[in-house]
Amino acid sequence: MKKRLLLCASVIGIMCHGQALAQSAATPTQDSEVAEGDIVVTGIRGSLEQAAEIKRDASQVLDVITSEDVGKLPDANVAEALQRVTGVQITRVFGEGQAVNIRGLQQVRVEIDGRTLLGFSARVSPPENDNLGRSSGLDAVPSSLFGRLEVRKSPIASQVEGGLGGSVNLVTPKPFDFKKTTLSAQVQGTYSEGADKFEPGFSGLFTTTLAGGNIGILISGEYQKRSSSLQLFERNNFFDSLNGGTTKKFAPRLLQYENTDIDRSRLGINGSIQWQASPEFVLTADGLYSKVNAKRTNQFIAFNMPTSATAAIITNPVIEDNHIVAGTATGNIRTGNQRRDDPATSLLLGLNGKYDDGAFTIEADGYYSRGTLRQKIEVVTLQTANNVVGSFDFRNGPIPDLILKTAGGAAYDPSLVSNFPARTDLLTLRANTLPGTLEEWAGRFDVGYDAGDGIKLKAGVRYVDLSGKSEAFRSRADASMADLAPYLDTGNANFLKDIAGNFPRQFLTGIPDAKFIIDRVLIVEPNQSGDPPGTLRRNAARDYDLREKTLSGYLMFDAEDEIFGRPIRVNAGVRITNTDFSVDTFTQQGNLLLPRTDTNKYTNVLPSANLTLNATDDLLIRLSASQTLQRAGLAELAPSTFVDATNRTSTSGNASLTPPISSNLDLSIEYYTGKSSMISGAVFYKSVQDFIATNTSEAIIPGFESLGVVRVSRPDNVASAKVKGFEVGVTQFLDFLPSPLDGFGVIANYTFADSKDSNGFPLVATSKHSYNLVALYEKGPLSARVAYNWRDDAVFEFIQGRPQVIAARSQLDAQIGFDINDQFSLSVQAQNLIPKDSATVEISDFNPLAINSYALSERRYSIGLRAKF
């Protein structure tokens, strides 16, 4: 730890770029007046000062990140920008930030300008693992489309419900936010070290006004292209095993080594037209479109041990902390290659009209949101008979050693064709398609009245019609070595080159040829459901068609007064929401699929109150009490079952889920030490009822008896939970130092979140300790930043009642920028400078030797030229 802190301190003046982050609070976009020119800020200090001003006027607890300049947030990825906020932790998938956890809870609502952007995340993982239907992933849209990011930690009644831990609002710029015609553009190149590629990125914004300033137009966009290479140890889990004895131990079942190459492109376009029909009335029409195309190629080799909870599978076992971490077993070798295409789009179209004459406000807002996914997968798998002897050892790290031999004791070479049998049932081809569509129509109507003497009243209603439909198509076929001969390859000798260890580096694999695979599987398993020719066999057991309607209403008031001569502000209200949904799926009975409809309906009352006291001109004390909810994801609500025969797992949903309700208390202080400097602290407590968690067990699935016992995962309202903790943060420029040292500054924050469910287990995705250290420098044309983020270990799932944990990890990023003149600036960035510290390591039951997976990401370097007129 000391070495890392010294490293951060040593590069303060070398590589850092303008971090526009403040621990602050802001009113929601729909409830605040954005000052003209709000988006146009100057440098790090300008953005920090702007955030501090928003904070002082806030009626709730919320942190803000503002852009240093037009369309220029401090990180290219929205989730990675949010990780700098006190109390926020992020989840990384395939080397990129994807989701956030706020104050110990991962159930967070994400919206754009107070609306829902539906979409399938760019995380390149199966959609059934995502909390779909509520919002898109934070990595689904480029960050340059937004002028401000808001992290709401305490709600107000006028905000949309949905988010136990809080909500994130991504604010897009509007034409009337600018004082003059503005044009900005940036070209950037990014080098990914693992993929060894240098790829382009482009972004731009144009806004102007017409008709004497009564009509404004704005359009912005960004295109990103990035290739990545990840090195992985995957798929292992430690399960209960007697291993021929009488004492239960935990033994590994599957050791898989994998290299993943990802080719991702993102396109985002945002546009807005505003018309000021009168001094009191403004009409706004806007739209946002995002497209992410993620293509992935996986090459892997796996050693599969027999499945048994009682038999002596592992000989010469070495046991540490009741886990078998070394030994020898006889099983099979499976190698394969997968190609996967995940094109996903998001569309959001909205119309807003607002009338404000100073006393009365009337606002109507309506939008349409749509997200689509058209996933395609082709796989070639080669497998031996159960006659390969594997000796494994987890003790040498970071991933287990694996030495392969024949039953006779000779070395086994997995790169030889002769070592794979000619049995066609062990040589398989598989093709999957998974089209999914999400749609939402929503409208709201709000009225407000300023009664004078600091009292304001507000009320409103909101109606949402949400639908989600997912279909699955899957066909497979056996092959022969003769069939596969043109597509076989002995692999890459540099397999997992950056991970030390003694395991197979080269092995025989098949290269997926889409036409070859699809033609073969359609011959063997054609679609017989009346779909068009060339369509894969329908896998209807995985389908769902869901419809959810919600009607919400709220009453709220704001009041200002004095107590002991000091200003005090109060915001209080109640939100009532009714939810009604139905879902159509199929249930499997033997070889039959029977249609099934499930319904659910519930009403929730959510009160909230926020009090702000100006103890002095620069010291604010805030007290908040509220209740929040989080509806389950659509895939969680669909009771359809998906069985992964390759990995012997099964996942299903649960239509009976009810939304968990969190009762929240928050006490915070904010002390402003300057226009762009502040110290903040908070203590918080959350009590959650009907918490949703994934139950994992082992069972034989009807219709899949040939797989034997498989791991079954299903969500349930299984527990209550409590989260308590505190957070502290400081943002400070060292103005008291002589020039040029007065350009230095620091942002530092620490969060403690102690979470437990009613069984005493920590909550999923919550680290007890996390902190950020950001060193800043801005003087004249030079700006710089170095940012270090660290979070403690966190549970990610439970298997057989035992927690599976993501070990502690950190990331170091650095940037430097130089303003060439008033119009042009140059920036250089370096991300993930210490890859081994940022590796995602999953372990069993807090045992550091019991590795379930290890994912090593790469360094990235970017250089960009920016122009603004």
Number of strands: 43
Could you say which structural class the secondary elements and strand pairing correspond to?
A: mainly beta
Mean pLDDT: 86
CATH topology: Maltoporin, Chain A
Q: Tally the helices: what do you get?
A: 7
What CATH architecture label applies?
Beta Barrel
Q: Which oligomeric form is depicted?
A: single chain
Query: Could you give a short account of the major beta sheet?
Result: 22 strands, antiparallel, barrel
Low-confidence stretches: 1-41, 122-132
Helix content: under 10%
Terminal residue distance: 45 Å
Evaluate the radius of gyration: 28 Å
Q: Provide the number of structural domains.
A: 1
- The CATH class is identified as Mainly Beta
Outline type = globular
Note the beta-strand portion.
Answer: over 45%
CATH homologous superfamily, by name? TonB-dependent receptor, beta-barrel domain
Walkthrough of the structure:
The protein has a single domain (2-256, 268-868), classed as Beta Barrel (Maltoporin, Chain A), CATH 2.40.170.20. It has 7 helices and 43 strands. The longest helix is centred in the N-terminal third of the chain and has 14 residues, at 43-56. Mean pLDDT is 86; it is low at 1-41 and 122-132.
